[in-house]
Input
Amino acid sequence: MIRRYDTIRALLVEVLGVSPETADVDACMMEHAVSPATVERMQEMLERHRTRRVLTPLSRRRRRGHLCNGCKRLGVCRASGEKERG
Output
């Protein structure tokens, strides 16, 4: 049951942007109503989301030698802390 709760809560917070307080309550209710197949798909979606968030900006920065557009506005890579090369 804890794994189901953790997966649902993480999906709500990390992917959907729900506040942690709301996600705590919603995940507790949802874990009892969601099928194992749905939780499995939620886990897959969460992993894809986590991989994209971390790897995409880094791979773009390394490939092109500069920051992605989101990091460029800040002047620093959010994933590595590396500053843009001039």
The two ends are 51 Å apart (CA to CA). The CA atoms of residues 53 and 79 lie 9 Å apart. The domain at 2-74 is CATH 1.10.60 (Diphtheria Toxin Repressor; domain 2).
